[in-house]
Amino acid sequence: MSDFNVNVRGVGSVSVIDVKGYLDAHTAPDLENAFNSLLENDQFKVVVNFNDLTYISSAGLGVFMAYVETMRENSGDIKFSNMQDSVYNIFDLLGFPVLYEFFKDEVEAVNKFSDEQ
Amino acid sequence: MQLPLIYLRKNTKLEYAIVISVILLIFKIIYPVADSFITLFVSELLILCGAYLWFLYLIEFLIVNKTNTLALILNTGILTAILFFIIAISSAYVEAGNPPTGDQDFISTVFSVLISFAFVGAFLYILAVFRELFFLRQKRDPKTYFNTMLFFLGFAFISNLFVYLDVTFDYLRNSFYVVSIVLISINSLRVAWIAFLQKKQKLYLLAISIVLTILFGFNFAFTLEETIIRELMTNFSPGIHTVLNLVMLYGTIYFGVIFFTTLFHLPTAEAFDRKAEEVSSLMDLSKLITQVFDFKELADTVTTITSNVCNSDSAWLVSQEAEKIELRSVNNIGYVEADRLTNALLLEYAYDIKDVLILNHQPIKVKINSDMRTFNYASLAIAPLKVHDEINGYLFVTRKQDFVFDDDDRKAIEAFADYAAVALENAKLLEKSLEKERMEKELDVAREIQYKILPLDTPKHEKIKVSALFIPAFEVGGDYYDFFKISENKIGFVIADVSGKGISASFVMAEVKGIFETLSRLITSPKEVLIKANEILRESLDKKTFVTAIYGILDLQNGVVTFARAGHSPVMYVNNDKVIQLSPKGIGLGLDDGDKFNRNIEELEIKLKNDDILAFYTDGINEAHNGELEEFGYDRFEKLLLKNAELDPDIISNEIMRELTIFSKDRSQHDDITLVILKWCFNN
Lengths: 117, 684
Fold this sequence. Notes:
The complex is a heterodimer. By secondary structure, chain A is an alpha/beta fold. Helix content of chain A is 46%, strand content 32%. In chain A, strands 1-2-3-4-5 form a 5-stranded mixed sheet, with helices on both faces. In chain A, helix 1 (28-40) runs parallel beside helix 2. The model of chain A has no long low-confidence stretch (mean pLDDT 90). In chain B, the strands form 4 sheets. Chain B has a 5-stranded antiparallel sheet with strand order 2-1-7-6-3. In chain B, strands 8-17-16-13-14 form a 5-stranded antiparallel sheet, with helices on one face. By secondary structure, chain B is of the alpha+beta class. Chain B folds into 3 domains: 10-260, no CATH class; 292-432, GAF domain (Beta-Lactamase), CATH 3.30.450; 454-680, 4-Layer Sandwich (Phosphatase 2c, domain 1). The A-B interface holds A 2, 25, 54, 58-59, 61-63, 65-66, 69, 86, 93-96, 98-99 and B 497, 499-501, 543-546, 548, 566-570, 583, 585-588, 591-592, 596-597, 600, 629, 631.
């Protein structure tokens, strides 16, 4: 099983989560921890950068579903960026593009937050 | 060298001994005084045989009735004391002016014979006890030494007969006598068993052995002196008198040796006791390790034993798992104190504890309930519980008095900590394997649910051929497919995949089955069925879980298929040598509250032609991986469908599964695989 890595960094008032590798039921808890730490610090504006993510399973998708409501209730959001086509197809099939915003580039996603204000 | 007749049965020995004793008694009554060589010879022969058989019987008696060593010695002491008493009384009696009985009336004959019997019985018992003590704790079999001595005692006995014949044979008796003394002295040195006594027992033995040395010494002296007993015994049997004399000497020497040996063993007695206790504690522990599945019980034993063996004031044991410290057992210390001390000590020394760490005279300050308390221990030991260089916990031992833990204490603590470590590891492994077993049971249940939920049959109709294939993964997923007869000419079908795995996914799957079974009867539009299903599922599913599904209806009259898709993998439509992915818009069930879902779902309608194929499946197929982490993907799937399009649906799905298995042979199946293939076989 290839590894999964998650890294959180701040870009202005927005938090960017870099995900890398293989996100499935076994690695999803790592991502959950990252989201939990954001909530603890009242960080509700989140961009997830998928640049290095090669696979996502339904359990991985479930993580975003679990947190998006809380983010939106606190005038934040989870936005996705830099997704590879194979990963995007999975999101697309499920109809995520209707529910979440997807961006080609992380900067666009981050800027979208400031535009919203 | 074996003693003759030793293998006789115990009861036989007793019978023979009694018979000979009775004959001897009668003989002695008839011939109170041996006035010829013949009577003396017969008398001595009977006595020797009788005494020998009694001796054999007593040996076996002592072996069968295993008595405590010290109790044996005490018995010997009592017998010796009685002998001494009798001798002293009788001497006093004679000295008081009563002449030794010269005339032999019947009563006094019987009386003196019985006294002699008592003496003989007593010294035989004593001799048997000596033999028992002699063999105690002997590693090699030393019976030759003892038996040789017995033979010489026998020779000394018999030599008296020769002396009777001719006084010049005196030298013969004397030499046997001397040799016997030498052998007795040699045999008296076998006192290894003393070392194994506890200190208290040694003190007791010391006292008793000095008394016994003196008593035996007196008895020995009295049998030599001109006492009435000497006369009585000599009269009864000159041989017995000699042997009695030697046994008394044996007792004097033996107990003298015992006294001095015990005296020299006393200083080391405590250390020896401790070692012995350590060894037996460790043995108890190692038994416990295999028996106790409950770690708490074992931890209690470890702290208790450590406290006892190391003479400590308190001991406690903590386990450590992933930086989490848990107090498992305390001995003679409060729970809170132990907890705070542990925290304080580990905070300060945790990185230094590779082996047993001993802190001497270091006050430890801890805060208990907003109270600063200082613990002044003379010595405190912290022993890591190590298995394969991994620390699973710590054993703490403290001592308040002045003596600090020495090297022996350190070794003992280390040994106990090692045992606790192994036990802790065992307990952990056991827990893990129980957990694993529980999970496997759960998966079995999940698999069972899944099989019960899936339909047993595929629809049968002249215009269609349907195959359905389901292969669960080890960690059961939540795949589901089903067919519903909606009306005479309409068949409903559904394929769904619940996110997540295991028993929870199985339960959602059961719910999904209920929803579609009901909705298929109530609502005719596939799109509306999915909208309603989303409403229901949105209420019941947790945030993280969603369900992808395709629901459709096939009209058997005209081959029109109407279906809608909720986030599920596209339908593969094989028509005229090409494969088309049918993917009408639609969001997964349970992802959205309703509004967006309802606005974004489309219904698709296609009219099937002869030999058209529809393949519904779950992502277990396209997401199957090979050894290089490559996905099976849609392309391979499409090609296989095309290649086998001419064949029956059953064969097509077998072919696809075969290819899939070959492709992913290096990887375990990660997700359930479901494949439903429908072929239209009617030219309309």
